[in-house]
Amino acid sequence: MIETSRRGTGVPRRAWFANETAMAIKITYSYTRPGELRKHYLNENDVQTLLGRLPPQVWSRLRTVHFNDRSIGVRRLGYVNQGRREIAICALPPNVSLTRYLVRRSPLQFGAVRGSQWPEGAVRRFMLYDVFLHELGHLQIVEPKASSVRRKFAGHTKAQQFADRWRARLWSQPYEHRDPIHNPPPEMLARLSHGGKRKEGTAEYRTRNSEC
Ligand SMILES: [Zn+2]
């Protein structure tokens, strides 16, 4: 049974609570103007939409999201700061393929085709529902008493498992939003409606550098 809000708005209480908490946590966004041959694929509205779908406890450490231009020739898509409170999402070229970041996973999952440049929507979907979720995974505390940052917070494998788990959960139900990146690509939905299981492959370590 869904509890209704005590304000009588009809909004499920859990969602109302999440929104209230989300409003109490102030996240700052910073933008660096990208170079001539790169652009930002995401902005704060995209991130806010995603965060609004997640329980606040999984992003309560987050304080700042940077949209910067430090991909170093598409060798890096995103990273977290040392204190695990800031996430950076890097600008990328206007024409790009990110298939190299997928190990034993199909780019179809995000709306792209192997061997071709990715459509903008596929890049945005991947940057938000894979890269950003992966970086958010690095903010999760896995050993609270550990003295070193490396042991205290999730490493790459656990961060990717976090991303895969939340993406699967968020995409398991249709989400009403005018921006299609918040749902799986139409091709995937068509497959699913023909008897396919809405389930993703297991987490794989990807070819990001050590800073991801
Ligand atoms: Zn990582």
Relevant terms:
single chain; disordered N terminus; 6 helices; 212 residues; 32% helix; alpha/beta; binds zinc ion; 4 strands; four-stranded mixed sheet; disordered C terminus
How many strands, what sense, and barrel or not for the largest sheet? 4 strands, mixed
- Mean pLDDT, nearest integer? 84
Quaternary organization: single chain
Quickly count the domains.
1
Which range best describes the helical content: under 10%, 10-25%, 25-40%, 40-55%, 55-70% or over 70%? 25-40%
CA-based gyration radius:
17 Å
Structural class, judged by helices and strands? Answer: alpha/beta
Percent of residues in beta strands: 5-15%
Q: Provide the list of bound ligands, each named once.
A: zinc ion
What is the spatial order of strands in the main beta sheet?
1-2-4-3
What does this structure look like?
It is a single chain. This protein is an alpha/beta fold. 32% of the residues lie in helices and 8% in strands. It has helices at residues 13-24, 44-52, 120-138, 149-152, 156-170, 186-193, and strands at 28-31, 64-68, 78-80, 86-90. It has a four-stranded mixed sheet, with helices on one face. The longest helix has 19 residues, at 120-138. The radius of gyration is 17 Å and the shape is globular. The protein binds zinc ion (ZN). Residues 134, 138, 156, 159, 208, 212 line the site of zinc ion.
